[in-house]
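Handout, page 2. Input:
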Amino acid sequence: MIIKQLEMDPYDNFSYLVGCEQTHQGMVIDPGPNVDYIIEEADKAGLTIDIIFNTHAHGDHTAGNGRLKELTGARIIIHEADERGYPQADHFLTDEATLALGEITFDVIQTPGHTPGGVCLYAQGNLFTGDTLFVGDSGRTDLMGGDRPALGASIRRLMALPDDTVVWPGHDYGPTPSSTLGWEKRNNVNAKEYGYYVD
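Output:
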């Protein structure tokens, strides 16, 4: 799997360019506003962008959707519970499912809490967490639709994945740009509150 972590201004967002090495099909997760940068990186990697995937519908994670679709023709996917935040999407997820990108199969994991339609993507030991789980912290729940107990339950579900799972967060808010679930169990500030702390 090809993974490019792309930092976006002005909110320290991460957009992700993910690709299949066999078919050269590409997906952009949470495209930020710097679409030219995303396209340049896709060209360098030899990827054709077929899918635009939003982990949730906040504007800092959907800012590049429209222009990226214009330039690539890629379909936009988001969960139906966040439809109000981005009604222009091409496909609305209704349940947990799998998503194919060339030879890669992603598990779509529903993780409400930051927003009602929050989801994460998991494949080949990599977990793209949007604003559900950050390095050392978790998403805020004081915005419309936020639910702290739901977020805690969502993160506990993620912690059932292997400890060496790489966490690719939606923002560069931690001491490192990525981590592992094992590291989060020992170091995340919410680990004890949400019930996944390991000493």
